[in-house]
């Protein structure tokens, strides 16, 4: 049997991922009828039906779901190999790195110039990816993530523990309102990161439900950078990992308040680096990921 064309398989994967022929056509810059024709021809050729229509979406049949999952990894491998070939042709290597967004913006990116200086032929592309994933289903060569353990089956290295969270605010806010005791913080707006709704109650600790209830009040922000920006602008007080706001404190944009949180109020876990397990004899990805890992571990020493 002749293999289906790569174009048809790309259209099938895209329509399956987006659940829409219209959106797939927009992403691939073709017409919706072209998507429909290619998938119909593929169905007739293979004798299967790939999609069912459910309301305004197309949903994979069991046969379609199994086939798309099988080909998706291969399409990703072809795309990754093509990008690597193009980069090497220009004398460069590309490391596709998935990173927890906060770690990327607050810790990694400010240090990346050092890696570029040591390895000018390796380009690091950074992708925000807070959730775990399977390397086989992605274009990524390496990942930095927060968790309790390394990922099984891949080379991994523990980078940093997040450490304690501390209350911070703008220096002007600290001058305007005298803060003598921990409970005085409740007189000011408390800023919350949506993904850590219990950060303030846990920081206060104890069994006083009145304090814990008051500690949950205040505006919430989806992104770490939003909370940090709100604190810098004087909108309130945020409780954030000290390692993530060290630069803002040292620059004077934020002031650390002289109060300790309750024992164990910080987040448990650590940041890990893991990278793709390569095939024996294929050293390109392993080499660039290993070089990045060595550099990263050196940056973490003494942090």
Automatic annotation (TrEMBL):
Domain HTH lysR-type: 4-61
Superkingdom of the source species: Bacteria
Keywords: Coiled coil, DNA-binding, Transcription, Transcription regulation
Annotated GO biological process: DNA-templated transcription
GO MF annotation: an example: sequence-specific DNA binding
InterPro entries in the record: LysR-type_TF_proteobact-type, LysR_HTH_N, LysR_subst-bd, WH-like_DNA-bd_sf, WH_DNA-bd_sf
Coiled-coil spans in chain: 25-88
Recorded family membership: Belongs to the LysR transcriptional regulatory family.
Name of the protein: LysR family transcriptional regulator
């Amino acid at each position: 049997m002749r293999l289906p064309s790569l174009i048809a398989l790309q259209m099938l994967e895209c329509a399956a991922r987006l659940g829409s022929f219209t959106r797939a056509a927009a992403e691939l810059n073709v017409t919706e009828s072209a998507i429909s024709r290619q998938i119909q021809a593929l169905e007739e050729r293979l004798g299967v039906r790939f999609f069912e229509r459910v309301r305004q979406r197309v949903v994979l049949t069991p046969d379609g779901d199994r086939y798309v999952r099988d080909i998706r990894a291969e399409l990703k491998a072809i795309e990754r190999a093509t990008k690597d070939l193009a980069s090497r042709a220009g004398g460069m290597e590309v490391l596709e790195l998935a990173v927890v967004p906060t770690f990327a913006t607050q810790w990694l990116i400010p240090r990346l110039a050092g890696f570029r200086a040591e390895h000018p032929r390796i380009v690091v592309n950074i992708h925000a990816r807070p959730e775990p994933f399977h390397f086989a289903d992605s274009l990524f060569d390496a990942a930095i993530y927060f968790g309790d353990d390394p990922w099984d089956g891949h080379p991994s290295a523990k980078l940093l523990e997040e450490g304690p969270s501390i209350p911070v605010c703008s220096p002007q806010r600290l001058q305007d309102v005298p803060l003598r005791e921990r409970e005085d913080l409740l007189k000011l707006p408390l800023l919350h990161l949506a993904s850590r709704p219990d950060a303030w109650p846990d920081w206060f600790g104890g069994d006083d439900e009145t304090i814990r209830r008051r500690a949950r009040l205040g505006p919430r922000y989806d992104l770490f950078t939003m909370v940090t920006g709100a604190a810098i602008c004087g909108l309130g007080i945020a409780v954030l990992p000290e390692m993530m706001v060290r630069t803002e404190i040292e620059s004077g944009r934020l002031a650390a308040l002289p109060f300790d949180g309750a024992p164990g109020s910080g987040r448990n876990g650590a940041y890990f680096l893991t990278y793709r397990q390569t095939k024996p004899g294929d050293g390109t990805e392993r080499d660039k990921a290993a070089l990045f890992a060595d550099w990263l571990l050196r940056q973490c020493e003494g942090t």
